[in-house]
Amino acid sequence: MPGRLLIVDDLPETRALVRRQLSAAYFDVVEASTGEEALKIVKQDEIDLVLLDIMLPGIDGFETCRRMKAAPETAHIPVVMLSDFSQNASKIAGLESGADDFLTKPCDFSALVTRVTSLTRMKMVIDELRLRHAANAGIGLLTSLHDTPEEAYSKAAILVICDNPRHARRVRERLSKHLESRVDQAVDPVEIETLTRRHTYDCFVVCASDGALDPIRIAAQLRAQKETRNAALMMIFGSGTLDQAHVALEMGISDYVTGRVDYAELAARLRVQLRRKFYSDHLRHSVEDSMAMALIDPLTGLHNRRYVNDRIQSMIDRHSPNGDGLAAMILDLDRFKSVNDTWGHEVGDAVLKEFAARLTDNLRNADLVARLGGEEFLVVMPNCSGAGQNAGENAGPNAGRVAERLRCAIESKKFATSVEPISVTVSIGLAIHEKGEQAESLLRRSDRALYRSKAAGRNKVTLSAA
Fold first, then answer.
1. For the whole model, what pTM was predicted?
2. How far is 187 from 197, CA to CA, in rounded Å?
3. Of the listed 31, 128, 227, 375, which one is catalytic?
């Protein structure tokens, strides 16, 4: 998992020390002595994390970080700022400039490696989401990590978890003074479950204490649950618990603070985590939307042929062994070419959308409705009886009657368009699934039945022979 790191420091001995430490942990390390040099490297090289000193010749570390985070192609690369100064003001300035973490030199070896490993792991997850987004969208990223609008923070929700009610209340109240987000508190597992079921939280702040609540176990549970696993996870540890904090970081928490809490720094760290969480959500939702669009016909909103190819056989496999009837019908609008030729494609598109709406209005949610292309549509109905069967009290709908109902729904009412109401009819080919029959055969029989409906004068329903 170790990646490629960039150390930016004007002192060669400092670079050599950090390089030895990280090389011992199997990281590939490159070096830069100025901010300008670092900005060139991150644009030209595949860098997974930047260790950035504040005091640099030319532009300082703060400005270097700001410029790096302002560029969409480098904004997602984690930055850990290093400083000889441990003042909270320097830490907050570094975090507000866009840094993902802040360490004081000389760095504790275990703290450095653990922090770097955690951030590199997060960056690799982001990289995968970025690649999927770009591949699905066919374009570059539309937003960067630092394009998060300010109103996003005001809409965020944070849950403080601590089994000491007074401590929980203090953390909640002080964070509320530094953050515009909503901050709630929970003191036991029952309250945690209740609140997470009612609300969606963007971040959890788990406080270690001497009580019965095991903070690392709580963190592990939050990471394990689907509803909370993508939230940012901050932990507060007391003094002398650095080893425990490192265990938590390796387990997958987002960040931690130890010792006496500076709430301005904690708030700055939470904003960093929220920013990363919002960006990950954006990428994840973009990928999900792109995948969904690949299976949806953009004009009618119905599923497309690609979805049908993946879905219909699984419907057969699920319903046929149980003895549930399954039917497929292919529908084709009669003489649709004349609609486009006479009134234009805009009117033709309006007819197709209305046709799709009438189909869905006359079918069940369980029925698969898809546009195969052009004016040809498909309906697959699970749990239905055949055209010639007598449906019992608990049987599904009669496929033949459904097909006839659809035909009548199209013929009975003209289609409203921007030019004038248009009469439309549909021809339908229907096939009832036979035991052991594959999807390809079922669709082929439906298509042949459709051809016979067309040949018989159109505006008909034809049932395929077994």
1. 0.63
2. 15
3. 375
